[in-house]
């Protein structure tokens, strides 16, 4: 397994589950987006004049901007045609600024800069100046991120800040721009306070997704992984809910899931990013997702192979134990046969003794001279008969108990075989695997089973005792005697490692009371470094 670089808190699990739910409902959100777009297209067809048509085209462009770049370009080009046709300078400038934004957004930086530099800023209205300076801020922010030379990057950064300050002056205190400026100045807590004020909590607007994402970046800079994950998850949900196919938050969340060894989520998240980027035809997002995709895919394959290897080892051990039990059964049958033969011999001996008694009685009549000897012989014979009867009674009881034990054991083995055969016929391999692992089919009634269990377990996990001690406080670590394999505490840990955590099953396995098992488990948790996660950590060894 890939080691976990850092841990995600339990509090963030609910946010990750919201991401999982949003991804599972992605088709529904896409359908809603398509319905909205189709309504706009219908309205455009029925537009009464060019002014209404222009406004609808701009709505279509904005809806397609994060959904399908090709369609966004198509409807923006139509809006440009209507703007040029109107000869309205402000509308022409507005649509050109939108075109520059789209070029920059889709990676066409040179084309975006060309449009930006041709815009006559001095003749712009207050609202257009705000958009113009915001465009400049975005363009030079892109240039800073792409610059290789630090001196060039510094020059771009100065221009970026200048355009950001100008945009702020015309925006009336835009929250995102204000937070960007505070964060750039190292005032992260103040930036967080600005972004958190009146923060949308319904995840239904693009503004919500943007503010959550900026918050995640600030918390990442503060090395606050929990809050970074929280706001990345919320930004991802906001994007998916709004039918956005071009996002960064979910990709970064996939990388964090990979780093924290949540391979299943990392795999689903990065593939969702790649599928959406392809659907949007966003080359930059496709490249970003493709960079991390092979690493996550390799981790998934490694995990599957490791699980397969563990399953093979487990099946081998179960098979070996089953064969051992069959051998014991054969030996018991042979011993039972020997006991039956001994009983028949004893019956024959008794019959011979009875015949001898009859002969002795007849001889007593004929041989009066030997009467005293015969009386003594009869007394000895009576004593011998009593001993033989007692021996027969003990043997009969022993054989009866032994036969009952064998028959019960044979019945259990037959039921176990029928159950496995039934599951195998259904090809329910998951249930078959679970049934094979279960300890309820194997009765641990002989003391030497624990020795076999200890040897088998330590053969599979030779470092198990050392690994358990790493979870315990230094003063409470377990030290075995020279002739010990596993103590009762270690057997409880071994059962937990094998997935047996139910107190009743552990009680039956150890042949002790429920309170004894509870006391052992409580004592182990009290010795643990991390008491709450101790049993979970055992399963991960």
Blueprint of the fold:
Blueprint: H1 13-24, H2 26-45, H3 50-65, H4 69-86, H5 89-105, H6 109-118, H7 126-146, H8 150-171, H9 175-184, H10 188-196, H11 206-221, H12 225-241, H13 249-259, H14 263-280, H15 283-366, H16 371-425, H17 429-437, H18 448-460, H19 464-470, H20 488-497, H21 503-510, H22 514-527, H23 534-539
Helix pairs in contact: 1-12, 2-3, 3-4, 4-5, 5-6, 5-7, 6-7, 7-8, 9-10, 9-11, 10-11, 11-12, 12-13, 13-14, 14-15, 15-16, 21-22
Protein architecture, described:
- This protein has helices spanning 13-24, 26-45, 50-65, 69-86, 89-105, 109-118, 126-146, 150-171, 175-184, 188-196, 206-221, 225-241, 249-259, 263-280, 283-366, 371-425, 429-437, 448-460, 464-470, 488-497, 503-510, 514-527, 534-539.
- It has 541 residues and is mostly helical.
- Among the domains are: 306-440; 444-539, no CATH class.
- The longest helix has 84 residues, at 283-366.
- The radius of gyration is 41 Å and the shape is elongated.
- The relative contact order is 0.05.
Detail the poorly predicted runs: 1-6, 393-406
Order of helices and strands: HHHHHHHHHHHHHHHHHHHHHHH
What is the helix content?
over 70%
Q: How many helices in DSSP terms?
A: 23
Strand percentage, roughly? under 5%
Structural features:
mainly alpha, 0% strand, 541 residues, elongated
